[in-house]
Specification:
- The chain is α/β, with parallel strands linked by helices and 146 residues long.
- It is built from three helices and five strands.
- It has helices at residues 68-89, 102-111, 114-117, and strands at 5-11, 15-22, 25-33, 95-100, 120-124.
- Strands 3-2-1-4-5 form a five-stranded mixed β-sheet.
Amino acid sequence: MKTPRTLILLASDKLCRLIAAEAGRFTEIASHSAADFPDVDVEFTSPPPRGQSPAGTASFTIDPRQSEAEQERGRFAAHVIAALESQWAKGGHDRIVIAAGPKMLGVLRDRLPKALAAQVMADMDKDLVKIPVHEMSPHFAEVFAP
C-alpha cells in the first residue's frame, strides 16, 4: 500500500508555508510573507481614498465595513490560495491539510475553490506557521492517526 503524500498549508495573517508530509517526515517546499506582495500591506497615512459618488454620499475605494486588517488578511489569503493551487497543480500529493489561526482559516475556507476544497482532508484552527519543520509531527498526530 502506497503511503499518502500530504500537502500541508500553514498560514497566518502575515506568513504562509507549504510543507510536504510523507511517512512521518516533513519537508518545507515554500514560504511566503505578506511583505512579498505590494498589494497586501497597504499603509494608510490619511483617511481612505474616496471615489466618485452622487452628491451627499461617500464612496470609498476600500470596503468601509471591514477593518484594514481584515482587508489585508483577505488580500494575503488570495496569494496563499494561489500558492497552494500552484503547488497542487504540480502533482505528487494525495491530499491537503490546512492549519491556520481561526480568522485566516475562515477566510481560506470561504475562498478556497471547490475543486481544491474537495482535496482537503482536514483543517485545524491553529497558527503553526512559526513551528520548525522538525517539530511538526506532534501537531499533526491526530490528523495522521490510523
